[in-house]
Queue: 4 jobs
Job 1
Amino acid sequence: MTSEISLSSVLDLRAAMPLKAEILAVRGQAVMLDGSAVQRLGGLCFQVLLAAIRTWREDGQSLTFVNVSEAFAAQWSALGASVSDLGVQGEIV
């Protein structure tokens, strides 16, 4: 079973704790994170997403990003990570 989580348009300080809770609620399952709405990615949510990628890899589960917006991809890279780390399925939109 694959769960899908739609990421908010603004992933800032206020979004970090709800994002963490939403992701952890589906731990142990394959997860697709829809990044199509993301317009702003802050440092704390960036860290939450990096931790999720690492946790899912350690758990042997699939965590993939789908429909990643250009803004999300650009800010992900600006924060020092590679877009290839996202395991993006499909094209960046």
Job 2
Amino acid sequence: MGAMFSKELVSSKNKYLHHFTHRHTLKLVSEGWFICNACRLLGMGLRYRCNELCDWDIHETCAAGPEVLSTHIHPDHQLNLTWTKGNPDEHLVKRGRCGVCDEYVNGRLFYSCPFCSRKRVGFFLHPTCSTLPPLVNHPIDKNHPLAWQSGPQTWCTICRKRCPIWHYRCEPCSVDVHFECAC
């Protein structure tokens, strides 16, 4: 587990990047849909890509993630960026579910809580999920920002589907919104 982290910008405009997850120089591109080879989640738009016969992509968010993360999503402990070496198909091993989106963390790049892991509870987070803000201004509630919170499962005011435990909410207006619908 873990690796020596090195992110070296090749140009000052961030068009090229040497990243510890890949052996070739990566170029910033912004076309179409892709699967991130680091976290294994679907992405669209900006990403770093290797064109050295690799067909290798990484979210801009995954490439820029700090080694240690303090976040409102897991406020009691800092999270460590983890890169697992080994077989590229190692992402097929399910480590646990992301603390935000509740999808399995199947990729080789993710955040984990060392304290919760020792207690066998485990807390995992996709790098892209780590960027959700604590408050969101949204047209669904023009009077109050929506706050990131956990609570009982409710229904999303926008799409009418079930909200997971973590979602955005305006308490005074009783408005609940999926993070996907809010951002």
Job 3
Amino acid sequence: MENHQTDAPEVETALSTEMLEELDNMLEAMRERAEEIPQWEFCDGFLTALICTRRDIPTAEWLPMLLGDGEALEVAEGQPLPKLEAFDSEAQQARFLELVALRMDEVRAQLDTEIKSLEDQAAFQPEVMDTRGALLMLPEAERAELEDEEVPSLGQVWALGFMFVVENWAEEWAAPRDKEAAQWLDAAMEFIVNLTEDDDGEATLNLYDEDGPASTSQERLDAFGEAVWAVYDLRQLWRSMGPRVEAVVKGEQPGRNDPCSCGSGKKFKKCCGA
């Protein structure tokens, strides 16, 4: 999946600066009511992974995983989603989902458009910030106050959000039976996982302000680009394979210690026979 070529059309950003600020303020307010509410960068990685997941995960399933206790919401047919504790009102939850839908539609369109280069205007652009670069731009007194805090590397929080989905819907990210497809998956996932690690290279760039003090290594920037291409590959891989088909066991079932007939590679007793 090295060739991503076509004449990419121009696209507008789905979320304006004002909308992104609204989301940041909304998430900040939620932290006063609920624990472990993530930053928008984490959310963007999470949403991107949902789009790349083999199964279409319903909102009632992913919303509480992102902002609640992880338990899927019970929704009667034709009824609205129950309000999560993190939101102060149903209107706030509805607005959050409205903004998220705009972003997810944008990401789908970007990933489904073949491009020549990540510089193309139609290319997928993760919502990431050079936090280290921004910190270095602060006055010395303000930097001193944050000296003991752990500052993430470029794209690290985004990648952690992506992997949060992979880990919590592991069955949808299990390696396919086709050996070539499985290798394809492993190679793409490695680029995402690499981005969850710290940038230990020599800082030569500041992506927050090109005239600012160096905060990010060239190796990290290259790794970020590789991870973006990997997202394209993951989206294409699962779309080409379609949803997982649950195995229907007919006739005699395999023994408890035999390989499961669904092709998972696990023993029957640890899989469909559990």
Job 4
Amino acid sequence: MSPLNIALSSEFVRPTNAQIGAKLQADQDAGCTYLCGNSLGLMSKRSKTLVEEELDIWGTRAVVGHFSHPLNRPWVEYIDNLTPLMAEVVGANEKEVVVMATLTSNLHLMMDSFYKPTPERFKILCEAKAFPSDQYAFTSQALAHGLDPKEAILELSPREGEYTLREEDILRILQEQGSSIALVLFSGVQYYTGQLFPMEIITKKAKEQGCICGWDLAHAVGNVPLKLHDWDVDFAVWCTYKYLNSGPGGIAGLFMHEKWNSIERPKFAGWWGHELATRFKMPPTFSPINGAQGFQQSNPSVLALASLLGSLEVLKEVGMMEPIRERSLQLTGALEKLLMGSKYYVSPSDVSQKYEKSGSTAPGFTIITPTEPSCRGAQLSLLILPMGSGLMQKVFDSLVSYGVIGDERQPDVIRLAPAPLYNTLIDCENAAKFLELAIDLL
């Protein structure tokens, strides 16, 4: 059997066809074709075990579990089990990362520290159609500083007829308007198109122009190799329930480069950010942990930490991000080849001629994710044609009936993400086969 057919770990629980409502699948007990790890990763058996252990300890030790833990994971220090693993995932020193809170709350904390607009330098540079939560955060931060978001937020859009941003266009804007840009904040991987931005290059250019550079890594962490410390990134935030498989609403993460430790101290102090040695002595004066962990505010959910720890341990066993990336490139490349072989596939360069100019109503699809493997992660975004026809939802519903779980983005996009920890070539083959059958039904 091809190595692409063998998942790197058998520790993940996959819903069956019956459980996800795949009515057109004869084998209802078989695992579904799950290609939605870019939205919510599958549960690892390790995570389930660790969570159940903490539930048992909660029941048998109650509050004593904070300090006396039969498995040597006292809750007050539980985060120490995750910090070195998370630091390795994002390419950071341990003091530069912390597992805490949620993505958007962490984004606000970091923007409050690093977005310091002046009359001359006040703009936030980002991609157009960033994830809505980011857009809301940008707007609210601009308003909090008394700025008009329409003037403060500089959004970059792809060129006409294109779906993704060009590197040279980002660098050109930084060169031309860098003196007015206070903060550069892109997604590591764009959630809608799946484009992987050249983070190192953008960060370097931003710093040359005197800008602060941060990253939303929600779709990049656990997906592509990162070197936040070496790239001189100022800060980054991420969630962990996608490619890090921590569970719905799982705890998030934060990075702050160590060069800022003595400059950007936590402004919104909380007792969990206080140094551990005196935290439980309840001193009246806040003494923050040095580095990113000083930004903690409340004690984290141990159940959420346990769930994330299980998945990170699986990731560590397979060698972390380099082998994950190698397998990801293989799987995503295989899926792309299969999709491009479909009778319904339309090249991006032909979409305008076939649909916009000729007015064709024939169903089809194109792939709006970059074809260059180095410019994408483990996701292919399919634009269902003709645009605005309402066919996407019909195709998506049919895919579910065939046991294929992807992710729909209104009005016309279906995202398919072969997560390298648990997806296989068979998943890719099923997705391509059933997509064609789904369009046949239209």
